[in-house]
């Protein structure tokens, strides 16, 4: 069964934000997608493995959300996933990165 985890962007007026998320009981990261106006960098293996750099949906606003998914299929073992979100438009609300995972 797949699970959707939302990592919200803080509305604190900063253009760049870091996040860390521990996979704990999840065994596989299936995919990731972001809200429009958000760029994503994603790092695994305690910061030694850059997986996504400057993943940007700015040009895909006309693409339906279900078509914006970047498939990853990365096996996890209690791994800390680290990311950097770059926000291009601070005025729009409810921005987030979403992780699709399997237990």
Topology:
Blueprint: E1 2-8, E2 16-22, E3 28-34, E4 38-44, E5 49-56, E6 70-75, E7 80-87, E8 96-102
Antiparallel strand pairs: 1-8, 2-7, 3-6, 3-8, 4-5, 4-7
How would you characterize this protein structure?
The protein has strands at 2-8, 16-22, 28-34, 38-44, 49-56, 70-75, 80-87, 96-102. With 103 residues, the protein is mainly β. It has one domain: Jelly Rolls (Sandwich), CATH 2.60.120.1050. A hairpin with a 4-residue loop joins β4 (38-44) and β5 (49-56). The model has no long low-confidence stretch (mean pLDDT 76).
Entry keywords:
103 residues; mainly beta; Jelly Rolls; 55% strand
- Give the biggest sheet: 4 strands, antiparallel
Measured distance between first and last alpha carbons: 7 Å
Structural class call reads mainly beta
Report the mean per-residue pLDDT as an integer: 76
CATH topology call: Jelly Rolls
- Overall, the morphology is globular
Number of domains: 1
- CATH structural class: Mainly Beta
**How large is the radius of gyration?**
13 Å
CATH architecture: Sandwich
- Treating each run of at least 4 consecutive H or I residues as one helix, how many helices? 0
Poorly predicted ranges (pLDDT <50, ≥5 residues)? Answer: none
Strand ordering within the main sheet = 1-8-3-6
